[in-house]
Amino acid sequence: MEVSGKNLRLVLGVKLKQLRQKQGYSLKELSQKSQISLSYLSEIEKGKKYPTPEKALQLARALNVSFDDLVTLKMGEELDPLTAILESPFLKEFPFQLYGLHPRDIVGLVKESPRKAGALLRTLLDIGQTYDMRVEQFLFAALRSYQKMHQNYFDDLEEAAEKFRQAHGWPETPPSLEILRETLIKEYGYDLDEAALKKYPELQGFRSVFVSGATPKLLLNENLLPAQKAFILSRELGYCHLKLVARALTSSWLKVESFEQVLNNFQASYFAGALLLHRDLLQRDLQAFFQKPKWDGEAFLQLMARYQATPEMFLYRLSQLLPKLFGLKELFYLRFYHEAGSEAFHLNKELNMSRMLVPHGVGLHEHYCRRWLSIRILQELAEEKRRSAAHAPLIGAQRSHFITDDVEYFIISLARPLVLHEGTNASMTLGLLINEDFKKTVHFGEDPALPRFEVNETCERCGLAAEVCKERAAAPLMHQRERTQSLREAALQQLMRDLHG
Q1: CA angle at residue 129 from 123 to 130, to 5 degrees?
Q2: Which domain CATH number covers 58?
Q3: Quick check: is 471 in a domain?
Q4: Which pLDDT value is given to residue 114?
Q5: For the chain, what is the domain count?
Q6: Is residue 376 part of a domain?
Q7: 417: which strand partners?
Q8: pLDDT tens-digit map of 219-248
Q9: Residues β-bridged to residue 413
Q10: CA distances from 223 to 56, 205, 391 (A)
Q11: What pTM value is reported for the model?
């Protein structure tokens, strides 16, 4: 296995401390025996310095080991996984700096308790292999954590979009598609092409493809909605204005190469949302909408149309502004895909800034609660499309009481057909915790006409009886297993009390 110079230092530091402690030497004693300064020796153990061959030989003699045993990458049975972890794509790409950490902090844990750390590292490797966890899953999880730490609001990106708008003399209303095209072509020298992609059937699922060069090219899918084209052009302006270099070449991820790519894509996309859906204008419009005494889905759609936005653009922009501007901090955003006629519903995007558990990720083969509005509205859209060629978005709202967590959320869902994937529909959902902040801000939250549902996470985890829940799609196996476990634990405790009574 090839190991980088940085990781060679880390591995040697761990081995040096192991050997020193095995001999019973303090750092000062080893310094005296090896005739190497205490400060230099400390730097070697911390993984910051790698000794010259002469000094490594001095250390080997002082520790009564051969030169080869000291500098070899072989760690011993306890720490064999360390080398694999250090050279894994996960450690190379994971953005530890976002959390104030460094990869050597993991090695620091190893130094303190080698046996336990070795077991932990081996466990992590086993979990990754068992669940086929890919590096990009960790990177997107890191991005979501980063968003949550900032409540999904980034003032520097808001201001960058605002300064860009002002510099171009654009009003607060969304810039037209023609203006966005002209700006990319004239200011940044882009070549925009809507014909090239149709020659490649395998690429029809992509909204756009970027081709770098002296004249950068952006290949747009001609079948996109105008609002989708506007977002892609605005995101490209974000890449240019923010001077973001590392990037994905395709609109949806074909391959994730680094966290920098993931973060840059997020920042450029945030810039696009801020440019198209102006913060101050949208804040005023939402304040007026929230004053309505009754939920009005048509008015919500009209508001969305004012910003020439797709349901995804609009709801996701709300997830950025509601926590910061309205104090509605506990929310979640979900996007589901559903092939008409199928019973499978795929959650392929989520941002959860609430206390509610959204079962999502590797190895989950359960059935999402069919009372979720995200699911019901997709079922409604599939039925409507079966009767007619439905293209307009569907909208719905409900109050959902999550049984397990005993919390209630106000839910807004929109569903629409995907323009690039025939027969596939998508639903976008925004959930807002109903607390005092919500009640003060959103007047229609108590509308008696709103449907109310008792919901859970998945059918497998739900204890509602069949006669209560007609929508159940699977048996409550997880719930029954947990209940059996609880009964056994209670019986065992009773047995112990009886025997010691």
Answers
A1: 85
A2: 1.10.260.40
A3: no
A4: 57
A5: 3
A6: yes
A7: 425
A8: 999 999 999 999 999 999 999 999 999 998
A9: 396, 429
A10: 65, 10, 14
A11: 0.80
